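Progress note, sequence design subtask.
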């Protein structure tokens, strides 16, 4: 039986989001209906609204979500009704070439729901199929996903905090812990201290880095970074790229860091991260570049500095392994997941939350439903 719920859509490119009635179809054999409790407001949702990711309007926005499994398909075995889950957009298929090579973190064919949610009757676009953001679509009272997109975690967790593992926090945390493989006693520099960068700072601390250097243009963000465990900060405001690089190197006895994480993804921060490394240091790009950005360095510098340059997709995470772990560490007071929730808002506040996000004054606004 089709259910009608309220949800936030982007109807056309750049237009303000709208709260509309949405039809949720009966779940297919491996589908699940999740009652959404909370969903973080991510830059990716804004990019969908602005047409920077795809042109498949209308979009059902939201993807950093947690909630309760309410209904399951006939062949679902992964979750049960009543389970508390964090939604993920890497529901590994087990069949693609990455999965068969033993690298499911790069799965090229992740599962999604078998049917589309649609705009309900009474709307000018009634019946229009919705494209869910990252295959999830969670700025909505209930959403339809594949069972593999649901990861069971400790129900004692705050949904507003747990849901953030669904994207940005896991991206930054995983960039440090999984992609960079930060080891105890190593030095780490993180360029850009928004939500993703701050999670990379916290991840480096969790991994046992002895020196964590936060780099940003905003002194307030740097002050916050120290609360997440950064041991040193470098404010880039008014400094040239070379001066920023030199400041990082001075903090590491002139050698540079073992790991440099670019959480911004613009050419300036990429170059700073590249040259701030020690010889044989690792650079990780987790900030998503735009379609025209270029990262140019002389080939002799690439060769001569050695080490590795990696991009980090979703923090190279495996949701079934990582989400329960970091929820538990949060509940034990060993990872500051709760501290990433800057404000709690309602469904009708998504557009305002986008504006707040652009100011850079929040780590995450979270929609509570």
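Output:
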């Amino acid at each position: 039986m089709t259910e009608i719920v309220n949800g936030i859509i982007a109807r056309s490119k750049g237009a303000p989001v709208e709260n509309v009635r949405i039809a949720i179809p009966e779940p297919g054999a491996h589908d699940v209906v999740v009652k959404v409790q909370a969903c973080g407001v991510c830059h990716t949702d804004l990019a969908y609204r602005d047409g920077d990711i795809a042109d498949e309007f209308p979009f059902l926005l939201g993807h950093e979500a947690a909630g309760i499994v309410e209904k399951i398909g006939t062949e679902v075995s992964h979750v049960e009704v009543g389970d508390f889950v964090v939604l993920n957009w890497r529901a590994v298929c087990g069949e693609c070439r990455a999965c068969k090579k033993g690298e499911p973190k790069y799965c090229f064919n992740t599962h999604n729901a078998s049917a589309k949610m649609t705009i309900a009757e009474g709307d000018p676009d009634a019946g229009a199929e919705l494209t869910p953001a990252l295959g999830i679509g969670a700025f909505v009272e209930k959403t339809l996903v594949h069972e593999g997109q649901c990861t069971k975690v400790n129900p004692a967790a705050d949904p507003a905090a747990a849901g953030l593992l669904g994207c940005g926090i896991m991206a930054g945390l995983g960039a440090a812990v999984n992609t960079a493989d930060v080891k105890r006693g190593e030095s780490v520099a993180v360029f850009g201290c928004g939500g993703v960068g701050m999670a990379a700072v916290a991840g480096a601390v969790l991994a046992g880095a002895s020196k964590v250097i936060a780099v940003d243009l905003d002194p307030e963000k740097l002050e916050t970074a120290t609360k997440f465990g950064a041991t040193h900060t470098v404010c880039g405001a008014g400094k040239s790229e070379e001066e920023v690089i030199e400041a990082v190197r001075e903090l590491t006895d002139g050698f540079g860091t073992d790991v440099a994480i670019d959480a911004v993804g613009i050419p300036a921060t990429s170059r700073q991260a590249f040259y701030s490394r020690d010889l044989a240091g690792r650079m990780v790009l987790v900030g998503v570049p735009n379609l025209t950005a270029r990262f140019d360095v002389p080939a002799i510098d690439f060769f001569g500095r050695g080490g590795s340059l990696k991009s980090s997709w979703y923090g190279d995470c495996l949701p079934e392994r990582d989400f329960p772990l970091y929820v538990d560490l949060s509940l034990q007071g060993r990872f500051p997941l709760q501290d990433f929730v800057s404000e709690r808002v309602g469904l009708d506040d998504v557009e305002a939350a986008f504006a707040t996000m652009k100011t850079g004054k929040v780590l995450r606004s979270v929609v509570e439903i």
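The chain has two domains: 3-166+336-368, 172-313. Work on this subtask will continue into the next period as scheduled.
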